[in-house]
Design goal:
This protein is mostly helical. It is about 60% helix and about 0% strand. This is Sel1 repeat family protein.
Length: about 160
């Protein structure tokens, strides 16, 4: 009896889907609002003015600004400014900037800003996990002993 009821409900559900007009459902998604990566960089006056004058938020935009300074698009050509932007982008770990510096026979700095950011994120994650652990102790009614209550030699 139960199996028959299940079959009837399944048939009704399929009939409802078939008759409701859901044949034209598309799977192509369009963003509701533009995101960070919605507008790719183009080497034009408009693209260069966007990365040079205010709306650059990502490290890759430093590389794009360097390209604009090197090519002289949207701004007077300045190799010194290009190298400065490439160096800062390379410090953020942008491989295109490292290649551009090598092409210009300039030393490529290490990705220290990227490494520092990764270390900061790891430290924040550790602090958040420690707080969650303490909150779990508190929710059970058991508080962890302070570090000075541990006997010497153990941690």
């Amino acid at each position: 009896m139960r199996m028959r009821t299940l079959r009837i409900y399944s048939f009704c559900a399929l009939a409802l889907v078939a008759l409701s007009g859901c044949q034209h459902v598309t799977t192509e998604a369009t963003p509701v609002r533009p995101g960070l990566y919605s507008a790719p960089f183009s080497l034009s006056s408009a693209g260069c003015s966007q990365v040079l004058h205010g709306s650059s938020q990502l490290p890759i935009d430093l590389y794009h600004a360097g390209v604009c300074y090197e090519q002289g698009v949207g701004t007077p050509a300045s190799l010194a400014q290009a190298v400065e932007n490439y160096s800062m982008a390379a410090r953020w770990g942008i491989p295109e900037a490292v290649q551009a510096l090598r092409r210009l026979d300039k030393p490529a700095p290490a990705a220290d800003l990227l490494q520092r950011r990764i270390e900061q994120e790891e430290q924040l994650n550790k602090q958040r996990l420690d707080k969650e652990k303490i909150d779990a102790y508190k929710s059970r009614g058991a508080y962890p002993a302070p570090h000075y209550h541990y006997p010497f030699g153990s941690s």
